[in-house]
Amino acid sequence: MIRVVLPSHLRRLASISGEVKLAITGAVTQCSVLDALEARYPMLRGTIRDQDSKRRRAFIRFFACEEDLSHEPPDAPLPAAVAAGTEPYLIVGAMAGG
Amino acid sequence: MTGVRVLVGTRKGAFILSSDGMRRDWDVTGPLFGGWEIYHVKGSSADTNRLYASQTSGWSGQVIQRSDDGGKTWEPVGNKFSYDGTPGTHQWYDGTPHPWEFARVWHLEPSLHDPDTLYAGVEDAGLFKSVDGGQTWLELPALRSHESGPSWQPGAGGMCLHTIIQDPANPARIFTAISAAGAFRSDDAGQTWQPINRGLRSQGIPDEDAEVGHCVHHVAMHPARPSVLYMQKHWDVMRSDDAGDSWREISGNLPSDFGFPIDVHAHEPDTVYVVPITSDSLHYPPDGKLRVYRSRTGGNDWEPLTEGLPQRDCYVNVYRDAMAVDALDDCGIYFGTTGGQVYGSADAGDTWAPIVRDLPAVLSVEVQTLS
After folding, report:
1. Helix, strand or coil for residue B334?
2. Exposed, middle or buried, B177 (CB in 10 Å: 0-12/13-18/19+)?
3. How far B34 CA sits from the closest chain A CA (Å)?
4. Closest-CA residue in chain B for A56?
5. Nearest CA distance, A83 vs chain B (angstrom)
6. Least CB-CB distance to B59: which of A43, A45, A60?
């Protein structure tokens, strides 16, 4: 199972407590993880990436295994530790004031 | 039992202020959607339990929330606002072409007759409609694709469609206003639009009386007299007696004719309210005195309403959608400030009292009259 950690404002929006665990069939990528996340929680559509272009929203970042994966291609494989569920995939609201 | 429900949108969440018909004691619920900017919350006049809220943030974009029980519970509904076709460009601040980009929903306007139908005014300026309770949205593209569209420019707050008014006597007639393009009217339910800005003069644009390009801040109508419109422009308070075909200035003896909100008494179509602000660069009341001005003559002759409002050292602003009236026999009027106060008056503005003093900056105030 893939473990996904959301920022608090998105957990509240989707009424999620703690991590989300997702079963992914096929390659574990940013795109496949977000597809599965949005399928389970449709209210998150548009809050992490654009609904049409699928581009990451500017102030959202993707971290895992102490690396910033925000600029990786959406279809690039995520680290093996994320795919194995030993490390979480972190969706983070960038530090941008407010 | 009668009562009122005041719906407040702020920079960091929404609040619901409830009272009985006396409007002396208030229950405060909130923050709802804490941490998010709530640009607007509005209830359906066809079903007072149906509320809609525009929830937005720089991180996560636009969410629309809906309540079917008067604000006790909410659910996110559709948030996909895609412009029809290839959107093209408008002018950017520097005069260069800029692609139309959706930023947020400024204003939600439920249908007068159907709680599942509502309009959304968005930035960059466009008008959207939902007929399924907010689950899906389609643009009414004729407004944005008006021949003047490529020349529209944003105001300082963005190029927002902030005012949507439905004519209760003519379901095909809709008024909208855009900063900084001006006011527009449709007489065919949004299929075609015409600018209605004749008589406006704006010194900040190259052609002072241009057909479009005016920074209209807000427009108000009394439902019993839908051909009369009142407008707070960037500078100037204006009135039209012919559904916007022509306008005349009614600023009269106001201490400043700059401001944002304007509203009309629920039972007196000639009683109008504004909140004068010092200037376009000084967004606070003249002389540090928070004064609502009331005209009982449809404009020109204005009286300051000060009892219960701070008359020294007050430097807040009142945004365009942050004033509303209730429909009780003694008309109540409410407004919210950038300092987080929401003031209410149960006697048409003669006296005021704060309902709450320390909310986040208030973006919008709407009122539901309950029976």
Report:
1. strand
2. buried
3. 8
4. B60
5. 25
6. A60
Model confidence at B213: pLDDT above 90: yes
pLDDT in tens, B233-275: 999 999 999 999 999 999 999 999 999 999 999 999 999 999 9
Cβ-based neighbours of A18, under 8 Å, separated by 6 or more: none
> Chain A closest CA to B346's CA: distance in Å?
35
Tokens of B273: 């309210």
> CB-CB: which of B36, B76, B80 is closest to A51?
B80
Cross-strand partners of B19 = B4
CA distances B45 to B52, B339, B368, Å, are 12, 29, 8
Nearest to A13 by CA among B31, B52, B63: B63
Q: What is the ipTM of this complex?
A: 0.90
Task: State pLDDT tens for residues A47-59.
Answer: 999 999 999 999 9
- Does residue A96 carry a pLDDT above 70? no
Residue A57 and residue B59: Cβ atoms within 8 Å?
Answer: yes
The pTM of the full predicted model, rounded to 2 decimals, is 0.96
Go through A50-67 and write b for each residue having 16 or more CB atoms within 10 A of its CB, e for each that does not: eeeeeebbebbbbebeee
